[in-house]
């Protein structure tokens, strides 16, 4: 029997899955919580060595669970969250802590870029509305605020690239992660102009070499084999950023196919065959394999992250039991639709909102609290708030959406899938594999190892659709009536988010004053 192994280095959880090459059946999955640190408010960092140790442990766990000979694993692919800053010094060691994409330290600097017109030019060239955790933004912030860290940087790349580096000893990135660096999205290459306008021209020479998505970038070294349990010499492909990997892993390879991912953030991704930069200044545009692009309208403010916070803050005891997930699902399903008038804006993450408007200072809100509010109603309201942001995101696109596939950790909830289908008032396809990012890079590994001639063929054999969620007509009508309130509240809050940020800036300045 032959297998491929996919790694999805996530913001909150690292997942490793092993798939049968012939049919994509999952034979093992291991998960490890991603350790992060917040040394200051709005900061989000990781220890790079600790992160790799976590990945290596998850690989060992998956191989042990599968009970297979490591020689039967014919290829490895790695997916990882896009953005952030992962840097090596001249000795190939971490130049400092990794800064993850939800980091908000550069939010105020980004507001200055907006006023100076830099954000507009950045979007025109790259198709990406910058968030504070964009690599280019973080490089500029470090140069101005932590020059010692900045001076140590010899190589910049992304999270999955560091994992690949530790597995193979080779330094490289790929087109998909380049999309979120200074990238000329039309020419599909790095943009010197973007390095220049950010004031970090010298970093263009320190960007890791850019390879095609899914190219073999190295082989597992003897040292990595001891650390992970993989066979020495196993080919490792570049993999892809998580948004691109998830689209590939559900088979959304053709124009008009979309995938919604309820992950830490909430991603709504449409595959297209030509660059689409409308609506201007909003969302992201990533490079896909075979000359395609992906238009991503993402609620970076949070998907499952918002639910996790609600449960942690208000409901850990309320949902105690043998299976907390099942208890949450049962209690939230018992809450009436629209949670007795409760409306939650799901922008809990420090990166704010990137669609349908670019509001990096956006934050979450809970509207309509009263004595009837329970932890379960908060859970249901956050599920509904995320679903309303799905309407926002797809509604802003001027491109045909032929079908939508839904995946991600949050999509394991049948209730959440039903809420999303009703909010969109259209069927949603549900892939069988839960870890579609890991499957996406495993498909690349299968092609690189010569088992399939193309990703289309690999997806046809290995991507399995488990079922379809049909919209409930009564629920859809209720959400159609409630959506304008969600939208109006968000528009009214926009200037108040800015006032909040200004207040915090003054507070921090006062504390730091002698």
**Class from secondary-structure proportions:** alpha+beta
In helices, the fraction of residues equals 40-55%
Q: Do you know the CATH architecture of the domain at 3-243?
A: 2-Layer Sandwich
Number of strands: 24
Principal-axis shape? globular
Terminal-residue CA separation: 68 Å
SS summary, helix count: 17
Task: Report the portion of residues in β strands.
Answer: 15-25%
Radius of gyration: 22 Å
Mean pLDDT: 93
Biggest sheet descriptor:
5 strands, mixed
Query: What is the CATH class name of the domain at 3-243?
Result: Alpha Beta
CATH topology of the domain at 3-243: Nucleotidyltransferase, domain 5
Strand order of the largest sheet: 3-2-1-5-15
Spans of at least 5 consecutive residues whose pLDDT stays below 50 are none
The CATH homologous superfamily name of the domain at 3-243 equals: ATPase, nucleotide binding domain
């Amino acid at each position: 029997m032959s297998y491929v192994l996919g790694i999805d280095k996530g913001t909150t959880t690292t997942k490793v899955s092993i798939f049968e090459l012939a049919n994509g059946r999952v034979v093992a999955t291991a998960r490890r919580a991603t350790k992060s640190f917040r040394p200051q408010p709005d900061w989000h960092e990781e220890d790079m060595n600790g992160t790799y140790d976590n990945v290596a442990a998850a690989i060992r766990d998956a191989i042990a669970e599968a009970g297979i000979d490591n020689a039967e694993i014919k290829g490895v692919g790695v997916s990882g969250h896009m953005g952030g800053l992962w840097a090596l010094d001249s000795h190939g060691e971490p130049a400092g802590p990794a800064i993850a994409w939800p980091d908000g330290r550069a939010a105020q600097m980004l507001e200055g870029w907006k006023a100076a017109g830099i954000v507009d030019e950045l979007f025109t060239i790259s198709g990406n509305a910058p968030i504070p955790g964009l690599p280019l933004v973080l490089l500029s912030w470090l140069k101005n605020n932590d020059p010692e860290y900045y001076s140590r940087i010899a190589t910049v790349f992304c999270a999955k690239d560091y994992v690949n580096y530790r597995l193979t000893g080779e330094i490289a990135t790929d087109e998909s992660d380049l999309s979120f660096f200074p990238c000329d999205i039309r020419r599909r290459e790095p943009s010197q102009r973007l390095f220049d306008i950010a004031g970090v021209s010298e970093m263009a020479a320190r960007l890791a070499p850019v390879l095609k998505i899914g190219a073999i970038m190295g082989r597992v070294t003897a040292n990595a084999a001891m650390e992970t349990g993989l066979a020495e010499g196993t080919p490792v492909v570049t993999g892809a950023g998580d948004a691109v990997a998830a689209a590939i892993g559900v088979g959304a390879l053709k124009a008009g196919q979309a995938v919604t991912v309820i992950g830490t953030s909430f991603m709504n991704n449409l595959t297209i065959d030509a660059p689409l930069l409308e609506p201007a200044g909003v969302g992201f545009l990533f490079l896909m394999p075979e000359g395609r692009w992906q238009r991503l309208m993402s609620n970076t403010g949070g998907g499952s992250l918002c639910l996790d916070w609600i449960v942690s803050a208000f409901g850990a005891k309320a949902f105690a039991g043998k299976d907390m997930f099942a208890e949450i699902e049962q209690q939230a399903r018992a809450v009436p639709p629209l949670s007795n008038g409760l409306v939650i804006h799901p922008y809990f993450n420090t990166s704010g909102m990137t669609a349908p408007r670019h509001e990096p200072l956006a934050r979450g809100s809970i509207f309509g609290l009263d004595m009837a509010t329970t932890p379960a109603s908060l859970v249901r309201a956050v599920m509904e708030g995320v679903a309303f942001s799905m309407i926002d995101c797809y509604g802003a696109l001027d491109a045909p959406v032929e079908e939508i596939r839904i995946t991600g950790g949050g999509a394991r909830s049948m209730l959440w899938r039903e809420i999303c289908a009703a909010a969109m008032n259209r069927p949603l396809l549900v892939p069988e594999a839960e870890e579609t990012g890991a499957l996406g890079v495993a498909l690349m590994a299968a092609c690189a190892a010569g088992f399939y001639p193309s990703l289309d063929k690999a997806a046809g054999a290995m991507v399995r659709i488990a079922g379809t969620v049909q919209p409930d007509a009564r629920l859809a009508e209720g959400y159609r009536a409630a959506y304008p309130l969600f939208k109006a509240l968000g528009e009214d809050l926009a200037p108040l988010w800015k006032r909040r940020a200004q207040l915090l800036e003054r507070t921090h300045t006062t504390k730091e004053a002698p």
